[in-house]
Amino acid sequence: MFFFNDLKVRSGRPVACGISSLLVVAGIAVAADGPLVPRSPGPATFIDLVDHPAPEANWDRFYALEDHLAGAFHKACGEGACLPRRFLWPMQLRCSVRVADATVAACIWVIAGSDLQVRAAGSIDPDVVVWRCVLPVGDAVAVDAFHAALEADDPLAARLPGAAESLRQGVARCLAKQGAAS
């Protein structure tokens, strides 16, 4: 059970009862008001690549592409491309498609890494890190051109039309940054 007396601000100081009551009332008012994000009255401007051109119409092709990219990632890591990190795993790929012109607007590939340490006392400490890699997608890459470019034997070597770098370079740049601890 949550007690208002236990509510603290970041500095660790307790919040006065009057302020905590005000916070609760404000929270109830916001919740009763409904969602804070306005709903779009018209058709979507962007959709998931899986749902292009209709819901789940691109399902098989997209997931085959995701598997193909994951296989290339594992192969590259096996050849030392992921060092000094080990145990990296591509978790999920998502791409948005601009509905008006059927072009891929953006893609994010979530990659996770882990390391487990066994302590002398017998406990196991996990170290899990997640990267949210924005893939280098050029401007106005048609959905079919996007798929065709990444169906190559080494899709990570592909540089999408209009992109400044290959997928391999973009992912390497992403993984060189500090990931988010999970």
TrEMBL record:
Name assigned to this protein: Uncharacterized protein
